[in-house]
Amino acid sequence: MPKVELHAHLNGSISEETLIKLIAKKPTDQQEMLQKLTTHIGDGHNRTLKECFEMFKMVHQIVNDHESIYEATCDVIDDFANDGVVYLELRSTPREIPEAGVTQASYVETILQAIQDKSSTLQQIETFDPKRKPIIVRYIAAIDRRNSVEHAMQTVDIAIRMKKTGLVVGVDLSGDGSVNDARELYTVLEKALAHGLKLTLHLSEVDGLVAETSRLLDLPPQRIGHGTFIHPNFGGTEELLLKTRKLNIPLELCPTSNVKGQVTPSYDKHHFYSWYQLEHPVVICTDDKGVFATDLSTEYQIMQKTFNLTDKMIQSLAYLSIDYIFESDSVKDRLRRYFEGWQQLNQ
Ligand code: 6MZ
């Protein structure tokens, strides 16, 4: 089934295979140490979310120069295309790596180069053809909330500057929700909006962020990452629910991430269904398909099985996700025609 992926962090999405390949290219004295890093959570296993954030830092030790950033981005795009993803919004936090000559700007340029080299043209998203696996890729500049306000402003300025490439579509706020108060980033995020960038914010991924979430919803963002603790059934409040509903802000939901990161006790207790029943827009996503050892097809299958959804319901979820991409109406129309082509062949 063709799909769109709207919530994927680059460094969390790198497969074990790619990381092994990247380690093999490092100086021999580093290889043994890098091979010992734990970068994936297999099925039936889980970690605390804090431990997951440590795993991202381990991946960062492997993806630590222009070459590895480029190669990792290319491989992640290939992985998504092979899983039937036709439109991907990939997000990543621009990282300075002084010892490798990487600046925030060159970090983003490297990713954009990989996107340019790997992305299909819009013309290739025309009629569905099972033999081809086209993919359109866009970039979202991520702000890690553990960094300073100045760092976040630099990220937004780079995104604004590179928007003219047509590949940079938005800004994300992510990172460990228990670190810092994201209300301090309000004006930075406002600037992104003022320059025509879209916003997707990790809101209430963890408990205890009601005041912060309420304030950031005032921006408002065009999409919400996770929103695990927004709905009152899941530790949120009526006010947050009403605000989210009134603004009709789509939620990007990442079931395996939430379960393996111990934010949600089990799939059947995932907040997906409460929003789905309200007919509130939701998009199924992977978050970090590498670290959480999953892919988008698996996430759809898990939701289908857990909540007894029919094939039609699942297909409709995937199709409606097109409405929430950070791209123009003409790109949306093209994707819709492509999905409809698949539906006609699979009725
Ligand atoms: C919040 C997350 C995340 O940016 O280096 N990230 N932030 N919640 C999550 N749920 C599990 N998963 C990943 O990719 C890794 C970075 O993405 C964010 C974190 O800031 C992490 O360091 P990039 O490509």
Automatic annotation (TrEMBL):
Species in which this protein is naturally found: Bugula neritina
Cofactor: Zn(2+)
Family: Belongs to the metallo-dependent hydrolases superfamily. Adenosine and AMP deaminases family.
CDD domains: ADA_AMPD
Protein name in UniProt: ADAL
Catalytic reactions of this protein: N(6)-methyl-AMP + H2O + H(+) = IMP + methylamine
GO biological process: adenosine catabolic process; inosine biosynthetic process; nucleotide metabolic process
Subunit text: Monomer.
